[in-house]
Amino acid sequence: MTFDAVALCRAEPDAAAMLGALLAAGSELKMDTIEAAGLVQLFDPGDGRLLLSVETACLVRVPGEAQRLLGLAPGDDVPEPVWWVESRAPGADPQAAEVARRFTAALVEITGGLTWESR
């Protein structure tokens, strides 16, 4: 299973915000893109293993939809509308999970909002 981390962003994450968050996740990491899938991936520079895949931001306009999908309480401070940025890390790799946490925390620091993690 993967470790999933979602940034629920108050403002649309532009290219500068995404790049800043990716660098905050680990400036030493190697980056690649899969344009057809709308993914940015980060890799360990030493052994080349995949640490994180980040999807393109998606605007969620339906009130309460993010809470419903993530099982959040109605009182949680989820922006509406919200920009949903999902990232996935290999589940058995603690370093990968930490990269995901750093990425989502940095993105939410830039855009406002909150983070959610699968564990």
Feature tags:
119 residues; alpha+beta; Cell Division Protein Zipa, Chain: A; 29% helix; 7-stranded antiparallel beta sheet
Please characterize this protein's 3D structure.
Strands 1, 2, 3, 4, 5, 6 and 7 form a 7-stranded antiparallel sheet that branches. Helix 1 (15-25) packs antiparallel against helix 3 (94-111). This protein has 3 helices and 7 strands. The mean pLDDT is 94. It has one domain: Cell Division Protein Zipa, Chain: A. Helix content is 29%, strand content 34%. With 119 residues, the chain is of the alpha+beta class. The longest helix is centred in the C-terminal third of the chain and has 18 residues, at 94-111.
Summarize the structure.
With 119 residues, the protein is α+β, with helices and mostly antiparallel strands. It has three helices and seven strands; from the N terminus they run βαββββαβαβ.
